[in-house]
Write a structure and sequence with these properties.
Blueprint: H1 2-33, H2 38-67, H3 75-99, H4 105-109, H5 116-155, H6 160-191, H7 197-213, H8 236-239, H9 248-255, H10 272-299, H11 304-325, H12 361-375, H13 412-416, H14 420-429, H15 434-445, E1 449-451, E2 456-460, E3 466-467, E4 471-480, E5 485-495
Antiparallel strand pairs: 1-2, 2-4, 3-4, 4-5
Helix pairs in contact: 1-2, 1-3, 2-3, 5-6, 5-7, 10-11, 14-15
Length: 505
């Protein structure tokens, strides 16, 4: 009785966390869709992802309780699980919108007409991927429960109910892995266009029924689920489930064992010439590799393609010698051959005794251009579209006001004379302009630092109490753009990975 009360208390606390998490998710969802600029959207998207991760962990706990036989009334648990899954679907929409940028290849492709067959194939691939992930997640839960029950049975031996549960979980893990293998194979075949989408549709309902109801007491599995599909590329050893008491290493040894001859009960013994050639091949191969290494040291980085091609030719010659010698028919021992072989390679293949070949003028020019391009690598922000500031309520101004911007108003000296609040206004409301860049530069000169996670400017109020290579901790002044004012934060940990430290030239 005490155990049931304890379990019910855990369930109530979990459902309370679900309600709070969904409420928090809704609040962040509204803020995301009302965000005014891209920086705020990125912040809210990160918060939304963090919240959905919490809900997913609660969902996993709820699914464990739903599968348990100790709980009779599971309606409330199922309702909360569906509520979390609804939020997960909403988050997927946000994630797709985030990944599909307006001017990306995918974004421009949305304007074109999508092929219905290709769209159906992509949806089926997504379903297969999600189903495999769900099965893997359930396998992890089963293994965790088996480990927990095994510890309990070791402490209290003779508990038949827990032992039966362990056996049932092991059976489920085995069946789950079998279905994961089948679905991964179907996914590869679909990607290679060797199976039709319609054929997968026939097993879709049965697979979903297995995932949802495989733990029910009255569940009956369809043993012929995949028989209608043409899965000829799967070996018979993989089609069958692994027998009890055999691990994966033993199965691998059985499947990869060397086949024997069909005409004799014992293998054909290798001839002495074969052994000699194998030793000669290995010696020659090692010699070639050592010479290639010395060549690479001499050539440095001037001719990497020639060295690679030279090494391939040496390896192909050695393999050809071995294949010609090899199960040739065995015969009388031949006369011993000299152990040293002479190989003639033209200078163009890398074995150049006079040193590296000098580069031509065109090659030197290309090398100089590559080095210059490397020093000016583009930044991800270079691809962002510059946004022009448009006044929401334009109105004519009297002629005695300034009709033109002040002289030198686009210089850093002009911005350094502005007040701090004015600089914050320019930074947050003139996004993507030169004014925003100059305001950020002026704020940095006033010892303000931008936090890329919170999208806010921070300034030390005093010397940090703790400074490490990864963070510093102390009292800071920060500008809250939502409530538009400066605030003080004590005991704040400023992680350097969130510090925007680009040198603004």
């Amino acid at each position: 009785m005490a155990d049931k009360r304890k379990l019910q208390g855990e369930i109530d606390r979990c459902l309370k966390k679900v309600a709070e998490g969904v409420e928090q998710f809704e609040d962040i969802w509204k803020k995301l869709h009302n965000a005014a600029n891209a920086n705020q959207k990125e912040k809210y998207e990160a918060d939304l992802k963090k919240e959905i991760k919490k809900l997913q962990r609660l969902r996993d706990q709820i699914k464990t309780w739903v599968a348990s036989n100790e709980i009779k009334d599971k309606r409330q648990l199922v309702e909360n699980r569906k509520l979390i899954e609804t939020q997960m679907e909403r988050f997927k929409v946000v994630e797709r919108e985030t990944k599909t940028k307006a001017y990306s290849k995918e974004g421009l492709g949305l304007a074109l007409k999508v092929d219905p067959a290709q769209k159906e194939k992509e949806e089926m691939e997504q379903w297969l991927t999600n189903t495999i992930d769900t099965l893997n997640m359930q396998v992890d839960q089963f293994e965790s429960e088996v480990e927990s029950l095994s510890v309990q049975t070791r402490k209290k031996k003779g508990d038949k109910e827990k032992q039966d549960r362990i056996e049932e979980l092991k059976r489920l893990i085995e069946r789950h892995r079998y279905h994961i293998l089948m679905l991964e194979t179907i996914l590869r075949m679909l990607d290679n266009d060797s199976i039709q989408v319609d054929a997968i549709h026939k097993i879709k309902d049965d697979v979903e029924y297995y995932i949802d109801s495989s733990q029910d007491p009255d569940f009956e599995e369809n043993e012929f689920l995949y028989d209608d599909l043409d899965l000829e590329e799967i070996p018979a050893t993989l089609m069958a489930t692994s027998p009890q008491g055999h691990n994966e290493d033993e199965m691998f040894l059985h499947s990869s064992s060397t086949p024997t001859s069909t005409t004799s009960s014992s293998p054909i013994p290798p001839s002495p010439a074969t052994g000699t050639m194998v030793i000669r091949f290995l010696s020659f191969f090692l010699w070639s590799q050592s010479n290639l290494q010395s060549i690479s040291i001499v050539y440095n980085h001037s001719e990497p393609q020639i060295m690679l091609f030279s090494g391939l030719l040496l390896t192909i010659d050695c393999l050809t010698m071995l294949c010609v010698t090899l199960y040739s028919p065995p015969g009388p021992a031949t006369a011993p051959q000299p152990a040293v072989s002479e190989v003639n390679l033209p200078p163009s293949l890398g074995a150049c005794p006079l040193g590296p070949t000098p580069l031509s003028k065109e090659q030197l020019y290309q090398q100089a251009m590559e080095e210059a391009a490397w020093t000016h690598m583009p930044h991800p922000s270079d691809s962002e579209r510059i946004r022009q500031y448009l006044m929401r309520n334009p109105c004519p101004t009297p002629p005695f006001h300034h009709q033109m911007p002040p002289h030198h108003s686009d210089s850093i000296e002009f911005y350094q004379r502005l007040s701090t609040e004015t600089l914050f206004f320019i930074f947050y409301y003139l996004e993507g302009t030169k004014a925003q860049y100059l305001s950020a530069k002026a704020l940095k000169k006033q010892s303000w630092r931008f936090h890329t996670k919170y999208m806010m400017w921070f300034q030390r109020h005093e010397e940090p109490k703790t400074i490490t290579d990864e963070f510093e901790q102390g009292t800071y002044i920060y500008f809250d753009y939502e409530k538009w004012g400066q605030r003080k934060k004590e005991g704040f940990t400023f992680e350097y990975r969130y510090l925007e430290d680009r040198d603004l030239q």
